[in-house]
Structure formats: C-alpha cells, structure tokens
C-alpha cells in the first residue's frame, strides 16, 4: 500500500474504512472473510452511492496528472479502497455471504500476480484461428 494515510478531500468520509485498504488481493479477501455480512454491507452501503463520483475523480485526476502512474498517494489509496469495495460487492451482491458458499477455502488459491516471478512468464500470444479451422465458417 502507498504511504498515504488520507484520502482526497471529497472522499474523507471513507476514512473510517481505511482498514479495508490492504495492499494485496489476498489480504483484502481475508479481511472480507473475517467480517460478518453486516459489517461488509456497512462498507458497501457507504461507498456504493459515491462510486460513480469516485470513478469520475479517477478519470479527471489521471487526465490532469498525465497518466495513472503519476497520480498522488491519496488517489492511489482511494484506488486500493475501491479494490476492497469490489471484494465487498462480491459478498453483498453475489454470494450473500462473507465467503464463497460451497467454494474451496480461499487460502488454497493464490492470485497469479501475487506469486514470485509472475512477471517473468512468457507472454501469451493470441492468434486468430484460420478460416479452415473455424467451426462457424459459412460456405
């Protein structure tokens, strides 16, 4: 996570939820799974009405700064908080549970981007299938 401890001024009301702004997907999932659905819903319900304003802020700030890599630490922290919001939304909107019902335990699966050396993997090349191989080819 970035060194910022505060959010952009227009989103200071979200500071009570900064304990959700964890640096990795695994940590955010573990946070979600450690809470009750009511606690998750509290975070979700606070952020959802302002989500579009947050996205507008991201677009404007990125444009003003000349790229996503140039935004300030407050904006980066807000971005991490919105990643956590996406974790919360899974529980509220889809699973109706802090965990994935009937799913494998979350610690069994590790996101590839959190594994050592993942950036060194060979690039995947997507090649269009030839028209001869295409099962939907119209003669």
Which whole number gives the mean pLDDT? 85
Distance between the termini: 55 Å
Proportion in β-strands: under 5%
User: Rg to the nearest angstrom?
Assistant: 19 Å
Categorize the overall geometry: globular
DSSP strand count: 0
Query: Which runs of at least 5 residues are low in confidence (pLDDT < 50)?
Result: none
> What pattern of helices and strands is seen along the backbone?
HHHH
What does the largest sheet look like?
Answer: none
**Helical content band:** 40-55%
What structural class do the secondary elements suggest? mainly alpha
The total count of helices amounts to 4
Task: Describe the model.
- There is one protein chain.
- With 139 residues, this protein is mainly α.
- The chain is 42% helix and 0% strand.
- Helix 1 packs across helix 4, helix 2 crosses helix 4 and helix 3 runs antiparallel to helix 4.
- The chain is globular.
- 18% of the residues are buried.
- The mean pLDDT is 85.
